[in-house]
Each structure stands twice: as structure tokens, then as C-alpha cells.
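Q&A FORM
Asked by: J.P.
Topic: structure of Arylsulfate sulfotransferase

PROVIDED:
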Amino acid sequence: MNSPYHPPVKRSVEIAGHKTSISLEPLFWDMLRGVAEDEGVPINALVARIDAERIRAETPPGLAGAIRLWLAARALEG
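REPLIED BY: S.T.
REPLY: Here is the structure written out as C-alpha cells.
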């Protein structure tokens, strides 16, 4: 495994037909990719699901923060 201390990497994803850029550290991109593979869905679909959940939150964080929090919560559950 590479060092977890790496600056964020910006990538484009498509949510509901709209492209957006997300900056995440490589560790989080790897985690997101792993969950998408485990669930048999594209990363775009997983990000769209996380985005829908975050929008329903009482005080929604930004999308990148929501992805990090979602992945951390999932890791704590497992």
C-alpha cells in the first residue's frame, strides 16, 4: 500500500447526467473503487447514491466530505 499521506486527486464523475469534479486523496479513491467493485456498480452510481443521501441530511456536507464520511462510516460498520 502506498503512503496514505498524499494530496487530493481531482477526478470527474457524472451524477444524474451532470459532470462534476471531486478531489479526494488516493486512499479514498481506492476505497470508493473497492466498494463499487464489491457492489458491482460503477463509481458514478455509487457517488450518486452518496450524493442523494447527503442532500437529505439536516446539514449536508460538501460532496467530497460526504464521500469520506460515508466510507469511514462503512469501514466502522464492517
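FOLLOW-UP: The mean pLDDT is 94.
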